[in-house]
Amino acid sequence: xxxxxxxxxxxxxxxxxxxxxxxxxxxxxxxxxxxxxxxxxxxxxxxxxxxxxxxxxxxxxxxxxxxxxxxxxxxxxxxxxxxxxxxxxxxxxxxxxxxxxxxxxxxxxxxxxxxxxxxxxxxxxxxxxxxxxxxxxxxxxxxxxxxxxxxxxxxxxxx
Length: 159
Fold this sequence. Notes:
The protein is of the alpha+beta class. 25% of the residues lie in helices and 47% in strands. The two termini are 22 Å apart.
């Protein structure tokens, strides 16, 4: 398997509670995240969302699709959402939020490995394209979320 460690930062002129609320409503993401084709809730989980399982179907900028489940493992309102991924990718994802001066920093950490044979075979040469595609998808998400929350995207970075 090819492993990836990707971190994206969004800076939104939106209150932290609004951002947290939107990120916690994964089935609504396709309405504002253009690269996300579908989100299906598979398991309801606890009242706070811990244990919920969602199936995500993404369309990459390179034309391939990824389908994977994420099980929400930890929630600390309004700062943190963590989950474990399985399917076309496996590993862990984390949303960390903090607010200062009316600007919410959204830090998305994605530590996964691909499980599809063709992606693993192509990874030695295609890794830069896979990373570029991930960054493009995340950029679409930042812009879409800012529009959804009637806020402004002040910045975006990748570490």
